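Incident log, entry 3
Record: Membrane dipeptidase (347 residues)
Problem: checksum mismatch between cached and fresh output.
Input:
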Amino acid sequence: MSKILTFDTHIDIPWPEKTAEGLPAWKITDPDDLSSLWQSETKRRFTLPKAQEGGLDAVCLVAYSPQGPLTKEGHEAAWKRVNAMLKTIQEIPLSSSSYKVKLCLSADDVNQAFNEKYFSITPVIENGYVIGENIENIQILSEAYGVRYITLTHNGHNLLADSAIPKGNDKNIMHGGLSELGKEAIKSMNQAGIVVDISHASRDSMMQAVSHSDVPVVASHSSIKALCDHPRNLDDKQLQALAEAGGVVQITAMSPFLKRGGGATLAEFMAHIRYAVDLIGIDHVGLSSDFDGGGGIKGWSDASQTAQVTKALEIAGFDNSEIRALWGGNMLRLLKQAEIYSQTAKK
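Fresh output:
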C-alpha cells in the first residue's frame, strides 16, 4: 500500500483547566508549557514524537473554550482566550527545532506539506461561544488565524444554538435549534471559508445547520447513535441529512460514544465506521481521535498507535482508496469546497 495521508481532525492543545488564582476555565489566557508537545514521556496523548512514531501526518489543533456565562464579561473573556490559543497554535511551527512542522490553512497546504514530508497543523475552534454577539469576529478569526472550522456549541447552550448536552442551569431548549444570530453566523462562516461543525449541537440545531449552510458541514467528533445511545451521537436520519447535503461525520475515538459504559476498543471504533459507511457511503465518513479532550481507546490510546488504526481499517475490509478517504480525504474535500465557495462569494 502506498503511503496514505493520515489527518486527525480534532486534537486539543495544552491549556490549563485551572490556575492558582482559581480563575474559571473560560477566563484562562495563559498556555501550559508547550514543551510537552516535543516530549515522548508525557501524559499527553498527542505530541510530535508520538505522532512521528505512529505515522500521523497532519492534525487540526483545537482552540477550545468551555461554556461560560452569556454575558458581556463572559464573551469578552472567551474571545481573549481563543485569540491566545490561536496565537499559540501559530507559534508551534516556529518553536520546533527537531521536527519539520508547517501551519496549513488550506486543503492544498495540507497536501503540499505531506508531499514535502512536513507535519501539518491546521487551526480550528470548538465552541461558537467565543464570538459572542459580534458576527464580524468570524471574519477576524479567518483573516488573522486561518481558522478552518468552528464547532457551533460545546456542552451548554450559547447565543448561536442549543447544545446536545445542556449545562446544569440551562433549560432543555433555549432557541429551538439555531438562533437568528446562529443563522447569521453560519452565513458568515460560509463567506469566510470556515466549515460549520455540528458536533455538540442539539438534534434540532444540527438539522437546521445542515439545511441553512450553503456549504457541506462536518461533525468533527461524533459517533453512531444506533450503536451507542449517547446524546453526542447522531441518529440515522441525521447521518442521512448530513450526507445528502454533502457533509462528513468524523467518527471519534471517544470511548463513551462508542460503547455504553466505556471501555471501547478498535473493534467498536471499526463497527461505528462500518455502520456509517454502509448507511451513507464512504464519501461521507472520516475519523478523529479527540486526543487530550477525552479521546483515546484501547488500540488507539495515543498518537503513537495511529498505524494500528490503518491496520484495523485494512482488516475491516476497506481498500486503499477507501482508507485514504476515511483518513482525511473526505475532510480535505470539505475544506476545499468551503474555500471555493468563499472565493466565489467575494467576487
